[in-house]
Amino acid sequence: MTMATVRFFAAAAEAAGTGSEVVHADDLGSLLDRLVELHGEELGRVLGRSSVLHEGQYVSDRGTPLAHDAVLDVLPPFAGG
Q1: Distance between CA atoms of 8 and 29, rounded to whole angstroms?
Q2: According to the 3-state scheme, what is the secondary structure of the chain?
Q3: How many Å is the Cα radius of gyration of the chain?
């Protein structure tokens, strides 16, 4: 099973209660499900409106396999711009 480092930003960090953590998951879907199991439905709501970057590339397909020792960024919508 892949160990992925997940980095949370803004509202995602607030909902998760941390800026980053390591999670075991083989694909994007299992990773997202595991994050909701660990942190609850508030994070699930944030994830539903967030962009996820896998190794710097936007991903949305839950079947996307994760690279070994992957780094994922959870980026909720930001105000301003």
Answers
A1: 17
A2: CCEEEEEECCHHHHHHCCCEEEEECCEHHHHHHHHHHHHCHHHHHHHHCCEEEECCEEECCCCCECCCCCEEEEECCCCCC
A3: 12
Task: Describe the strand order of the beta sheet including 20-24 as a list of residue ranges.
Answer: 20-24, 3-8, 71-75, 51-54, 57-59
User: Distance between CA atoms of 78 and 56, rounded to whole angstroms?
Assistant: 18
pLDDT tens per residue across span 25-34: 999 999 999 9
The whole-angstrom separation of Cα 2 and Cα 24 is 6
User: In Å, what is the CA distance from 64 to each residue of 33, 40, 41?
Assistant: 14, 23, 22
Instruction: Say if pTM beats, i.e. exceeds, 0.70.
Output: yes
pLDDT tier at 78, thresholds 50, 70, 90: confident
